[in-house]
Design goal:
Elements lengths: L2 H27 L1 H10 L18 H12 L5 H17 L5 H17 L5 H16 L5 H10 L1
Helix pairs in contact: 1-4, 1-6, 5-6
Keywords: Membrane, Transmembrane, Transmembrane helix
Length: about 150
């Protein structure tokens, strides 16, 4: 396995663990609210109309909204999708653009500063791995053979 592929696979593994870990932790903490969505129907997660026609949201509706935005509406789902895409591209030998790594690193650094303590900073490592992988140049097969002869 070449070094670019290895770097991208590590980056995607970190992103995948962060995303799935976030969703799993939410399921453990707010599992009752999530199962309530299933019982009450598809639109129960973030209702468009306040319960009981009241002018102010209830504690339950606010808790329900926070659970949605902390789970399926959070960064976790796109992060898992980005991890799967990065893994797939690494397998095909395609480099992920360095801009994706820079954006991921900046987003995770900002999130880590705003939400301390959190595992956001592990995302900075993932972004840095993508940047390094994008900067790596693949040596042609002929150059690899010549390097072996010189050693």
């Amino acid at each position: 396995m070449n070094s670019r592929k290895r770097l991208l696979r590590w980056a995607s593994g970190i992103m995948f663990v962060l995303g799935v870990g976030h969703l799993s932790l939410l399921a453990l903490i707010a599992g009752e609210a999530i199962t309530g969505w299933v019982d009450r129907g598809m639109w129960a997660a973030v209702p468009l109309v306040l319960a009981d026609g009241g002018a102010a949201p209830t504690v339950e509706s606010l808790r329900n909204t926070v659970t949605f935005w902390a789970g399926p509406g959070s960064f976790a789902v796109p992060l898992v999708l980005l991890a799967c895409l990065t893994w797939h591209l690494a397998g095909r030998g395609v480099a992920v653009p360095a801009g994706v790594g820079w954006a991921l690193a900046a987003w995770c650094a900002l999130g880590g500063v705003l939400l301390v303590p959190s595992p956001f900073f592990a995302g900075v490592v993932s972004g840095a791995l993508i940047i390094v992988a994008a900067r790596k140049r693949e040596r042609p097969a002929a150059a690899r053979g010549q390097g072996a002869n010189l050693a």
